[in-house]
Amino acid sequence: MVSLPDEIRNFCRNHGLRLNTDLGQHFLLDSSILDRIVESANISSTDTIVEIGPGVGVLTRELLKSAGKVIAIELDERMIPLLKEFTGQSTDPRPRMAALTILQGNALHVSMPETPYKVVANIPYHITSPLLRHLFLESKNPPSSLTLLIQREVAERICDMKDAGMLTILVGLFGKPTITARVPPAAFLPPPKVDSAVLHIECFERPLADSKTIEQLFRLTKIGFGQKRKMLRNTLGAFHGGLERLAGLHIEPTRRPQTLSVEEWIALANVWPEHEDV
Fold it and tell me: What pLDDT, in 10s, does the model give residues 115-130?
């Protein structure tokens, strides 16, 4: 029996396929990591899965075994016929497997399903931030969960509540992140220059704040994180009434923005006047 790495390498060689690393094309070769991704996503036969950047369908093929429907969004037109071939959709519809819908386009501009769905993907690492913003802030219907293979450093930053960044705050508003696996470069074809990780985000039924509060919150974090090394008294505290608002919430003005919890940012957004320009 041909191993997965040999199967993928032979497939690419037989089709003369050269991967475009500028588009973040790194195919996963490790079957144990594929299993961990599917396991982390907790997929059932009634689930709709949105996969972003499927490539030839290494992960897609596994998703089709468990899900009810898979929507694969691929930017590179070259991959579409190869995706159909590798997953067996071009010659054998395989009625025992989930239905596969392939959309050619940029996932950052594609409308997500109006019905419940999960995102499971080995995404191009450079779109991690814009993709999370698109799914959480721009989509009418955010996913019920996300299971993403991303750069390890970014995954760890998202989970670091003691030294929070903008992505930590964004994700924390919508769900609880957990790293379920760490993945070395050797697990990919071609190997990326960084370590990777499987990040699972179990989304809340509703965000921790309403849309108006979230909009105000990000206006405030933009100021705070714009000068990350500065204390709050020199950023938010510099605005009229800023120090009083911090004191009213028992937030020390000597703290730095990365030490504030999601709940503290929500509290600040709720007491900060909407009309005041920040």
Answer: 999 999 999 999 999 9
